[in-house]
Amino acid sequence: xxxxxxxxxxSPTTPTNIDWSAVAARVLAGEPIDRATALAALQAPDAELLxxxxxxxxxxxxxxxxxxxxxxxxxxxxxxxxxxxHYCSQSKISHxxxxxxxxxxxEEILAGAQRAVDSKACTFCIxxxxxxxxxxxxxxxxxxxxxxKETMNIRVCACLGILKDGQAExxxxxxxxxxxxxxxxxxxFHGSICTTHTHADRVRTVEEIKDAGIxxxxxxxxxxxxxxEDVVSMAFALRDLEIESIPxxxxxxxxxxxxxxxxxxxxxYCLKALxxxxxxxxxxxxxxxxxxxxxxxTLQPMxxxxxxxxxxxxxxxxxxxxxEDDYKMIEDLGFTIVAPxxxx
Length: 344
Ligand code: SF4
Hints:
- It is a single chain.
- By secondary structure, the protein is α/β, with parallel strands linked by helices.
- It has helices spanning 20-28, 35-42, 49-64, 106-118, 135-151, 167-174, 199-211, 228-240, 267-280, 292-296, 300-303, 323-333, and strands at residues 67-77, 123-128, 155-159, 178-180, 215-217, 220-222, 245-250, 285-288, 309-311, 336-337.
- It has a single domain (32-337), classed as TIM Barrel.
- The chain contains twelve helices and ten strands.
- Strands 1, 2, 3, 4, 5, 6, 7, 8, 9 and 10 form a ten-stranded parallel β-sheet that branches.
- The radius of gyration is 19 Å and the shape is globular.
- The model is unreliable at 1-5 (pLDDT under 50).
């Protein structure tokens, strides 16, 4: 990958003078973390990384033990999107050389679900590019979801964009367990990453999912030029929306995308962000999503002391490491993979 400009900020050195294990104890006692402490976690000096992660691990362990949930993504419709999300390789303003294709067949979606089962994933994520699904696309996905739920032991999460009235209910009735719609960033920074829809549009779809009784999945992307305060605001917005599953992406700068020159992350910062999200959302699934391999690098196993979930195999338009490497990493940590749910 050709990176045009790498912005590597200096890591802070001033001690926070915060006892991170005491923070964990307060969180575990049910006391929500305040914004100032969350920001301090994100801006902690590298010398505090291990105490910070150890504290996040206490919180993670109380909710999830040493288990890891695997998710498997399938991009069922790629590129050709009329929106202008500046970070996205599939947008109308992207010149990235990615595969572009319309909605794949029902058989291909079913084959993807089988690959997810074979990969030990507990959840199969059906992702389509676009502002939102047409009625035809929605019915097509709903049909596939129905058949997956009738024949396989796996949860299904759909991610099809902004929903129109009644579409969340259609997916619920087909058996979808979950719907993903990321907030992506803070309300304040959203105008800098997209002009064709608003943060409020995204929040509205999340609310519609919840109203329909579908488990909400929503997260974001770190490393697009936002401030630390924006990252903290996103963590609190997700908490306030009572999001059950939070995927955190670390921005992958793909050549041809407007944000292709952004690289302002280092592995320690990514770990601090995961710890901060764990403190703010102590009992929620936190998934290390896109950019895990690229930005956490050799430190990626440490991310699982704060997060409890990862994607296995590839991302939407970029490759991940092999499933075998993920299994080995989990085994080396002494953690176990959560089995898929039994079919009732
Ligand atoms: S709506 Fe989704 S697929 Fe379209 S440009 Fe934005 S992030 Fe990419």
